[in-house]
Amino acid sequence: MRILHVIQRYYPYIGGSEQVCQVIAERLAAEGHTVDVWTSNAWDLDHFWASGRRTIDQPTEQHNGVAIRRFPIVRAPGPALVYPILRRAMLELGRLPATSSLLMALSQITPRMPAFNRALSQEIGQFELVHAANITLDFMLIPALKYAKQAKIPFVLSPYVHLGVPGDRSLVRYYTMPHQIKLMQQADRVIVQTPLEADYLADCGISRSTLRCIGVGVEPHELAGGDAERFRQETGIQQPFVLYIGTLAKEKGAFDLIRAMEQLWASGRSEHLVMVGTPMAHFEQLWEMLDPASKQRIHVFARAPQERKRDALAAATLFAMPSRTDSFGIVYLEAWLYRLPVIGARAGGVPAVIREGETGLLVDYGNVAQLTAALTQLLTNPELAQRLGQQGYAQTLAELTWEHKYAQIRAVYAELVEARIQGSGIRG
Fold first, then answer.
1. pLDDT tens across 239-272, in order?
2. Does residue 428 carry a pLDDT above 80?
3. N or C: which end of the chain has fewer CB within 10 A?
4. Is 428 part of a structural domain of the chain?
5. Among 66, 64, 46, which Cα is nearest to 55's?
6. Which domain holds residue 59?
7. Closest to 127 in 3D by CA, of 51, 263, 34
8. Residue 388 shares a structural domain with residue 276
9. What is the average pLDDT score of the chain?
10. Are the CB atoms for 319 and 244 separated by under 8 Å?
11. Read out DSSP for 181-236?
C-alpha cells in the first residue's frame, strides 16, 4: 500500500495525535508499505494563528522509513485574534440551516497552506488511501478529502473530538459544526477513541457503519528505561513530586493543578510539581504572575528529551492531568507503565480510560477543591496509590499496547484498499 497521512503537526514534535500518527506510519513502513506524512511547519500550536511562535524549518525529511513533507502556514493579515473571531463567527453561522458549504469556505481563510493544496493537485493517482486527523483544525482536512474523492481512494478520518464536560457544549461545538459533521459523514471510516466519542458522533448523524472505536496504545519497550536517580541528580529535585506531562495550557488542567498544589503548600505539604510540555502563550503569562514561592516548587521542562520524560515518570510520586481536551489521553498509559496512580477529569474521553477507583481518580474539570482533595488522598494513602498504579499497569499491558491497537487500524486500511481493488464499494 501507499498511504498518505495528513496531520497538522508531526515529528519531531511529540503530542498525542502526532504520536499516534507516527506509530502507525512507522509500523506500516516497517512492513514494507510506502508512507508519506504531509504536515505543517508548526511546532507551537499557536503558530497557526499567531506570529512569533516556533516552527520546524526543514521542508522534507526521512525518518524511520517515513517521508515527511512540511508546508508553510499562511495566516490572514492582522492580530492573533482574527482566528478566534473567525471561528466564533463560524460557530454562530452554523446555527443557521444549509451553511456547511459556506463554513467550509470560511475554514480556508486562516490558517491555510496554499503549497499543500498545490502539492495535492499534483499527486493524483500516487496514493491508495488517505488518513487525516484532528477535526478542529479542518483547514487541512477539506483539501485532503477533496483529493481522496478526486483520486477515488478511501478517506479515513481520526477526528479526536473533544467532548468537554458532560452537559456543557461550549467545547464540543467547535468540533461538530455543520461542515465538520459533513466531513465526517463523507469519510469512508471514522476512527474514534472511546465509546463515548462513538455515541456522541452517532447522535450527530455519523453512520455507525463507518465508525470504528479503536483508541490508542503505548509501546512499553520505548517507555522503558526511566532512571529516577538520574532525574534527581540531573535536575537537583530531591523532593517527592507530582508530575504533569502535556501542553502547558489552561484547557489541559495545568492552571488548576498549579492552584491545587498551592493549596497543598499552604496546608504544609512539601511535594513539588514537575511539568513537562510546551507552554502556550497564556501559560507564559500566568507564570509571570505566579508567586515567587510557588515558582521555587514548580519545575517546568519545556523542551525535555524523551529520556528526561522517562526519568521523570520513574521518579514521580503520582501523575495528574485534569484536562477537558483529551479524546483519550496517552499520557495516562505512559504513567501506568511506571505503575503511577493517575488523576484525570470527568471530561472528554478520559472517563472511558481511567476506571475511577480502580486505576485512578477523577475530578470535575475546573474544580480545584476536588483536585486538591484527590492529590491529598493519593499522597497520604500510599497503599491506595500503589494499588491504583498496579491495576493501571495491568490494564495497559492487557488492552492498551500498540501491539493490540495497530492490528485494528491496519485491518481498517486493508479492508478499504481491498474493497477498492475489487471495485465493490467501500461504504459501510
1. 999 999 999 999 999 999 999 999 999 999 999 9
2. no
3. C
4. no
5. 46
6. 2-217+402-422
7. 34
8. yes
9. 95
10. yes
11. HHHHHHSSEEEESSHHHHHHHHHTT--TTTEEE----B-HHHH----HHHHHHHH-
